[in-house]
Amino acid sequence: MDFVYRQLFSKLPYPKFDYTGKTVIVTGANVGLGKEAARHFTRLGASTVILAVRSLEKGEAAKRDIESSTRRENVVQVWQLDMSSYQSVLAFAAKANKELDRVDVALLNAGVARGVWELAEGEESTITVNVISTFLLAFSLLPILKSTAQTHNVRPTLTIVASEVHAWAKFEERKAPSGKIFETLSSNQNTPGAMDDRYMVSKLLEVLVVRAIAEQKSAPQIPVTINCVNPGLCHSELAREAGWGLAVLKFFLARTPEVGSRNYIHAASLGPESHGQYVSDCVVEKPSGYVLSEEGWRDQQRVWKELVDKLEGIEKGVTGNL
Fold first, then answer.
1. Catalytic residue at 199?
2. Taking each helix axis from N to C terminus, what angle separates 32-43 and 257-269, rounded to the nearest 10 degrees?
3. Is the dihedral of CA 178, 181, 183, 189 positive or negative?
């Protein structure tokens, strides 16, 4: 009922932050929440807004729409990024580190909610895109974010788009033997209900990893704020494979992408007080009871270690960017 109340009655403030002269990256920005967030950043004065998209054609269409609505040209750029490919993620980050003189916000919004089993890079695709590639990109962008902080005397923000559904995940894979959580996630194709829970699990893992990052480097120890955000249930293309149940729920309760994107702008505009935190309805809130429990903390340590090992296997030294 708390979820229903917030969906129907929470009033999210219209963003009025000043982004004059700043550079922003938004992944998954050709439609929905990402596109609306990019529109806000452009409207708020950003000098460069990178739309990181899989389809350049759709990205260019989004660019034209944003330019038309904001009446600002020569701000939005379209860069290719396929989150189902580790090589694409690394190539995107390398380009950003090489070609951009600053990055003030990296809003990692791209994600999938798969209704069918499919592998990408040898992992179940939801986990590949929402977790492994997301944090591979996060760690790979930290050098430019840190250099921005030093050169321009600012505190950039790296925001991971999580979800309220992290609290609903059963996460049976936590019962896997030591070091086998990710392996189990990518080998339980025939487990009843595995895919029903998969998107929720991916969002839970994001929350756990953001908290683990803050344990490794507290706000005073790193010049970049790293947080996660819940946009709420919104009309978008994300869950187009999820079936009629979610479609009915969205019909009655979903926010517009523009309203949901206000959470993104707010989280991306917060300071060190939000480092490692979960932002929802434009305030820092507590994540689920499981996340805050002793059991959740133990599982967080396991997830963190496994993810670090996996990322180091993809790109040696990448987690050292923290």
1. yes
2. 60
3. positive
Q: How confident is the model over 275-288, as pLDDT tens digits?
A: 999 999 999 999 99
State the average pLDDT over residues 176-189: 94
Nearest-10 crossing angle of helices 294-314, 194-216:
90
- For residues 195 and 170, the answer to whether their CB atoms sit within 8 Å is no
Task: Report how far residue 271's alpha carbon sits from residue 51's, in angstroms, rounded to the nearest whole number.
Answer: 23
Which of the residues 199, 264, 278, 290 is marked catalytic? 199
Among 68, 47, 152, 162, which Cα is nearest to 107's? Answer: 162
**Beta strands per DSSP E along 196-309:** 225-230, 278-280, 283-285
19 is catalytic: no
SS3 48: strand
The per-residue pLDDT for range 90-135, each reduced to its tens digit, is 999 999 999 999 999 999 999 998 888 999 999 999 999 999 999 9
Residue among 22, 35, 63, 203 flagged as catalytic: 203
Q: Say how far apart CA 278 and CA 161 lie, in whole Å.
A: 10
pTM score of the predicted model: 0.93
Within 13 A of 149's CA, how many CA atoms are on the CB side?
A: 19
